[in-house]
Design goal:
alpha/beta; globular
Length: 208
């Protein structure tokens, strides 16, 4: 999983981005979903979304990860006062966590940085408890998104909504839902790890 460019790193640390992501993007990405229990955020950058989630859901225990050492250091400094947050370095495509550990995995604006994003989806599925949810948002594969990332030389692999829907289902998720917004420049998604019954049949899960 590649590190973000210097331009994107500066953007993630900017105060306006923190305010916008916490007040607008997090509620939109969650779409009414309440996180609880053990929660993992992958590719969290400087931790702006995790900070808002920790304050909104103080009963949840949130683990914040990023592959970029500088971002991990920033997140540790920012999030230190919050008792329900912990920060560590981790690559989404090879997570250092036990299988069936988390009730939710959040992925906010990171999938387009994960060249092997299908491997990242498989890892998210692995670390989720049965019935656990993967949710978040990302850019879609538009001309504007491709131009911006080529211009700042940021490592990327843009994903369309259709490709994400197919990829999450192929990884083994159920109840997959992907919704485009902002004139199809953004998409939010939600998908569940199946619950196996004694008969080996997937138990019903909430609609995406």
């Amino acid at each position: 999983m590649p590190r973000m460019s210097a331009i994107e790193a500066a953007f993630c640390r900017a105060a306006p981005w923190k305010v916008f992501s916490q007040r607008v993007l997090l509620p939109w990405a969650l779409d009414g979903h309440v996180i609880f229990g053990e929660v993992l955020e992958v590719g969290a950058g400087s931790g702006a979304m995790a900070e808002a989630a920790a304050r909104r859901f103080p009963e949840a225990s949130i683990t914040v990860t990023d592959v970029d050492a500088a971002m991990v250091a920033d997140a540790r400094a920012r999030l230190a006062p919050l008792p329900n947050l912990r920060v560590r370095a981790a690559d989404m495509t090879s997570l250092p966590f036990a299988t069936d550990r988390f009730d939710a995995v959040m992925s906010n604006l990171v999938l387009h940085h994960v060249i092997s994003w299908r491997d990242g989806a498989a890892e998210a599925l692995r670390v989720l408890k049965p019935g656990g949810v993967l949710l978040g948002y990302d850019l879609t594969n538009t001309l504007l998104a491709r131009f911006v990332h080529h211009a700042d030389r940021s490592p990327h692999r843009m994903v369309s909504a259709e490709e994400l829907l197919e990829g999450l289902a192929a990884a083994g998720f159920t109840g997959v839902n992907v919704q485009e917004a902002a004139r199809d420049h953004l998409m939010r998604f939600r998908a569940y790890k199946p619950v196996r019954t004694r008969t080996g049949v997937d138990a019903p899960l909430p609609p995406g």
